[in-house]
Design brief:
Blueprint: H1 2-16, E1 28-30, H2 36-53, E2 57-62, H3 70-81, E3 92-97, E4 102-107, H4 117-125, H5 128-132, H6 136-152, H7 166-208, E5 233-237
Parallel strand pairs: 1-2, 2-3
Antiparallel strand pairs: 3-4, 4-5
Helix pairs in contact: 2-6, 4-6
């Protein structure tokens, strides 16, 4: 009985999940959040980004999350649409949800070195004053312009850069200064210990003439189609 109820609940959740629409042909998916004129201008700018850099930048403007998790749904859209080139996973997606007053920037693996999470948040914040005023045309264009300039290596327009309060930046810097050294302090002994063990094994193998050798490992890369991200990006609201 319990298994049946669990399966039924799972089916109900699947049926209630918000659908993912087909990927747009114009780099912009718009559920009547911005005007047709703004959509055309936005689409033109996003095409310029791809033509100029090879990186795909897509904007999706929804009426509602319909109960979905902001981060989960944005990631699902990113994957379903395959944003970014297959060999580089270098796409970026800006999502806005009107009813919930939330936004999300999803950054592909291949762009995480170009746009950090903090930078993504700061660039998206440029649209917040416009969103608060109900001017979604100007807000969407402001976000796109800041991110586009960052991708293309252009000067970020005034007002599209750091929008976080100074106090918050100080807190972030302090946390980095505290936790980064702490991380190395905690992990370095283990690294040196493993290195010493490897050296002892190598010496022992060489002494006994076993011919045993060890290939250095490491973190594997990521491959596949576009749409892969490691949770890089930022979320916020207005």
């Amino acid at each position: 009985m319990t298994t049946y109820l669990t399966s039924l609940l799972h089916i109900c959740l699947l049926l209630a999940a918000k659908d993912i629409p087909p990927s747009p042909a114009s780099h912009v998916y718009n559920e009547n959040v911005i005007s047709a004129r703004a959509e055309n201008a936005l689409s033109s700018r996003l095409r310029q980004v791809e033509d100029g850099s090879g990186h795909q930048f897509v904007t999706a403007l929804f009426q509602s999350l319909e109960g979905e998790s902001l981060e989960d749904y944005a990631n699902k859209v990113f994957k379903a649409w395959g944003v970014g080139k297959r060999e580089r996973n270098d796409g970026i997606l800006f999502c806005l949800f009107l009813k919930e007053k939330r936004w999300r920037v999803e950054v592909g693996y291949g762009l995480e070195g170009r746009i950090t999470d903090l930078e993504a948040a700061e660039l998206a914040q440029a649209g917040v004053p416009h969103f608060k005023a109900g001017d979604f045309d100007a807000g969407a264009l402001a976000v796109a312009e800041g991110i586009a300039a960052k991708i293309l290596g252009e000067p970020v327009p005034a007002g599209k850069q750091a929008q976080f309060p100074l106090a918050l930046k100080v807190i972030i810097i302090v946390l980095l200064l505290v936790f980064v050294p702490l991380f190395f302090f905690m992990t370095l002994p283990g690294i040196f210990s493993n290195d010493m063990n490897r050296r002892r094994r190598a010496i022992t193998s060489e002494y006994w003439g076993s011919g045993w050798s060890s290939q250095g490992g490491g973190f594997g890369g990521f491959s596949g189609g576009g749409g892969s991200s490691g949770g890089g990006g930022a979320s916020g609201g207005w």
